[in-house]
UniProtKB/TrEMBL annotation:
It comes from Asticcacaulis aquaticus. This is Ferrochelatase. Belongs to the ferrochelatase family. CDD domains: Ferrochelatase_C (cd00419), Ferrochelatase_N (cd03411). It is found in: Cytoplasm. HAMAP family: Ferrochelatase. Its main location: cytoplasm. NCBIfam families: hemH. Coiled coil: none annotated. The gene is hemH. Fe(2+) binds at residues 191, 270. PROSITE patterns: FERROCHELATASE (PS00534). Keywords: Cytoplasm, Heme biosynthesis, Iron, Lyase, Metal-binding, Porphyrin biosynthesis.
Length: 329
């Protein structure tokens, strides 16, 4: 049996309160996040991580002190492995390579080498490609991997039909009890980026828009929708509209927001704290009648199947017939 390793790339997060500052330092010293030459970047990273430490620690305390991102990604890894291992003649194993905290990308490489991987699939848990996420992870991997196994890079999958249908399923479930959909608005919220990153050619925003268009086309529910961007950090101008402002505007117009996190595929600080606590509080202050947050696709069977199809396609193994039918439809 051929052994194929799948590395799931994600951002990572602090596991304990003591990890918060070094995690933030790693994030802000990434040249794909802060486009400044060394050593200025390290100086800035030191400053920002020191300044943000206490408030970020307080946010991570809402989730028991650290980020659930590793546990969530672990569940996705096991679900994907189980799905892939129904394929004859190939043994799959999924490894986790985080960009800014443990288990780091080099730890994933050591583990897959110890396992004896003969082929590697690089699978970012970012459906939409960005230089700040996917490219940063891939370059880190390329620098660290010294082995000879062929590597297949999955760049993005913003309109993968199973990813799209996973969201359609979750949205339909979240709005099923609503009597009058005219009183609600879908807010697709993606992590924002500095505008200059997009102007520099980053396809992220375009791909977020493609994901939303595909989900709306599949959803078949008569509800108004808008795209917005959350989690702005720092002094630069970021792409908009901002999620918090869009929530306020929605509440003030007498409608209630149904928030769909569209660029995150698992639960972590940006969904559990920013969306579920901070923005919910804002909406309530603005007098919202209701506030609904659709869960991330996490281990939704359709999503895991979508990831599996991406992996099988990347290694040249014929995709399941179902996916071909879905594409043809
Ligand atoms: C689509 C995914 C993401 C993009 C694009 C992205 C860009 C980006 N992020 C920051 C700054 C921070 N991000 C932080 C946490 C965080 N970011 C993502 C995803 C994307 N980031 C995830 C999944 C997480 C959560 C990790 C967790 O611990 O649960 C943080 C730390 C938390 C906080 O203080 O808000 C920062 C800071 C920038 C500057 C940026 C693009 C330039
Ligand atoms: Fe981020
Ligand atoms: Fe953020």
């Amino acid at each position: 049996m051929k052994k194929v390793a799948v590395i799931l790339f994600n951002l990572g997060g602090p596991l304990t309160q003591a990890d918060v500052k070094p995690f933030l330092y790693n994030l802000f010293s990434d040249k794909f996040i802060i486009a400044l030459p060394t050593p200025f970047r390290q100086i800035i990273a030191k400053l920002i991580s020191t300044r943000r430490e206490a408030s970020a620690q307080a946010n991570y305390r809402y989730m028991g002190g650290g980020s659930p991102i590793v546990k969530e990604t672990e569940a996705q890894a096991r679900a994907l492995e189980a799905h892939l291992n129904t394929t004859p003649d190939i043994e799959f194993k999924a490894f986790i390579g985080m960009r800014y905290w443990h288990p780091f990308i080099n730890e994933a490489i050591a583990a897959l080498e110890a396992w004896g991987a003969e082929e590697i699939v690089a699978l970012p848990l970012y459906p939409q490609y960005s230089t700040t996420t996917t490219q940063s992870s891939f370059e880190t991997f390329k620098k660290a991997y010294k082995g000879t196994a062929p590597v297949h890079f999955i760049e993005d999958y913003p309109v993968n039909p199973w990813f799209v249908s996973a969201y359609a399923v979750l949205i339909r479930k979240a709005v099923a009890h609503i009597e009058n959909l005219d009183d609600y608005r879908l807010l697709f919220s993606a992590h924002g980026l500095p505008e200059k990153v997009i102007l520099g050619g980053d396809p992220y925003q375009r791909q977020v828009e493609a994901s939303v268009a595909a989900i709306m086309a599949t959803l078949n529910v008569p509800i108004e929708h808008v795209i917005c961007y959350q989690s702005r950090v720092g002094p630069l101008k970021w792409i908009g509209p901002a999620t918090d402002e869009t929530i306020l505007e929605t509440a003030k117009s007498g409608k209630s927001p149904v928030i769909v996190p569209i660029a995150f595929v698992s639960e972590h600080i940006e969904t559990l704290v920013e969306l579920d606590i901070e923005y919910k509080h804002l909406a309530e202050e603005a007098g919202t009648k209701d506030y609904i947050r659709v869960p991330t696709v996490s281990v939704e069977p359709d999503f895991i199947r979508g990831l599996a199809e991406e992996v099988l396609t990347a290694i040249g193994y014929a995709a399941h017939t179902e996916v071909k039918e879905a594409i043809a439809r």
